[in-house]
Amino acid sequence: MSAEFLRFGGVIHAIILRAAADSKAGIEFFTPPEFSQQLALMSHPAGKAIAPHFHNPVPREVLFTQEALFIRRGRLRVDFYGPDLRPLGSSELGPGDVILLASGGHGFEALEDVEMVEVKQGPYAGDSDKTRFNPMR
To answer: What is the pLDDT of residues 6-24, one digit of tens each?
Structure first.
């Protein structure tokens, strides 16, 4: 599967996994080790066993929130912004698409009624968790 890497100024702002893309057998990791969220696609045949396990406590430092959105239905436009608050580009997502928002600013517009699942580091810290801004043009 080929993930879409949205880079602006050499920085990965987002990684998109399209619903229609083919996957290869096994586990394919898309994120670099310095990301605080890990994005992978797992594809296994029927009967494949994954050994029972638990996760050990491993201290990690998270400086910036990274979030993944899973589009269940509808269409969503994601707009990307640079540190100067200027627009960098946009991408449309549809049912089954997944996006990892890794860096930079972002905003959304529901192009249709949309239902999505968000996964990010928590707990949500309220107003101290994000800075809202008016984009520059």
So the answer is: 999 999 999 999 998 788 8
Q: Which of 101, 104, 102 lies closest to 76 in space, CA to CA?
A: 101
Q: Supply the range of the domain harboring residue 137.
A: 1-19+63-137
* Contact by Cβ (8 Å): 67, 101: yes
pTM over 0.70: yes
Q: Which of 1, 3, 23, 22 is nearest to 100 (CA)?
A: 3
In a domain, 134, yes or no: yes
pLDDT bin (cut points 50, 70, 90) of residue 108 is: very high
Residue 130 lies in a domain: yes
For residue 57, tell me if it sits in a domain.
no
Residue 47 forms part of a structural domain? no
Give the C-alpha separation, 102 to 122, whole Å: 15
